[in-house]
Amino acid sequence: MRARFRAMTATPLLVLENVDKHFGDLHVLHDINLSVQRGEVVVVIGPSGSGKSTLCRAINRLETIDSGTIRIDGEPLPAEGRGLARLRSDIGMVFQAFNLFSHRTVLDNVTLGPTKVLRRPKAEARARGMELLERVRIAEQANKYPAQLSGGQQQRVAIARALAMNPKVIMFDEPTSALDPEMVQEVLDVMTDLAQEGMTMVVVTHEMGFARRAANRVVFMADGQIVEENSPEVFFTTPESDRARDFLSKILTH
């Protein structure tokens, strides 16, 4: 059994300090302070428009921040250039949409990053790609094209593609929200396996069952702020804030 809410004693892998972000007059991230330890699974939940996805995208600098700092493994996230590309390779990203290349096979989608960005030999990348497709339970689809796969299968390919870059942390931005209900569990099962294997993960999701089962820590956001964070046991049974209690009373009754 994984430790649920581990003591924050080691040097964090990911650190956000006083991060602010505006879209015009809208303050979407307000003084965000968050640390993620190696091997920790942090699930970020909250109402729509609370800043969860923007937080996820800011960590990978798909969104720039107005102020504050973001550090990966002790290094500040660069603004641009090769340094940013290098650090981005340490941050895997799985989106709501699968973003696979439709004209490439499943295996080619997984091996493109390692061969083009990491300069891995093609044979090595393909062997590793097959291992990862096996890991996400979809190796038999290696030579098919994305359009031949279900949504759940495509999302598992996207996870394998992120893993192929050997990231230090993987960001999941609502990875099941675009899936039909019967496909959600197959993706969550793969994510649960990764959590149990010790992958560092930051997961934005509305899947409360996954948060209870796989998270070390739940971070609740509302109105661009982190309102509270705690272990799943504490958060779901005795939330500290009125805002979290109101949110849970609505989402857990559906």
From TrEMBL:
InterPro entries: AAA+_ATPase (IPR003593), ABC_ATPase_HisP-typ (IPR030679), ABC_transporter-like_ATP-bd (IPR003439), ABC_transporter-like_CS (IPR017871), MetN_ABC_transporter-like (IPR050086), P-loop_NTPase (IPR027417). Residues 14-248 form the ABC transporter domain. PROSITE patterns: ABC_TRANSPORTER_1, ABC_TRANSPORTER_2. The keyword Signal does not apply. Keywords: Amino-acid transport, ATP-binding, Cell membrane, Membrane, Nucleotide-binding, Transport. One of its GO terms (molecular function) is ATP binding. It is found in: Cell membrane. This is Amino acid ABC transporter ATP-binding protein. It comes from Salinactinospora qingdaonensis. The lineage of its organism: Bacteria, Bacillati, Actinomycetota, Actinomycetes, Streptosporangiales.
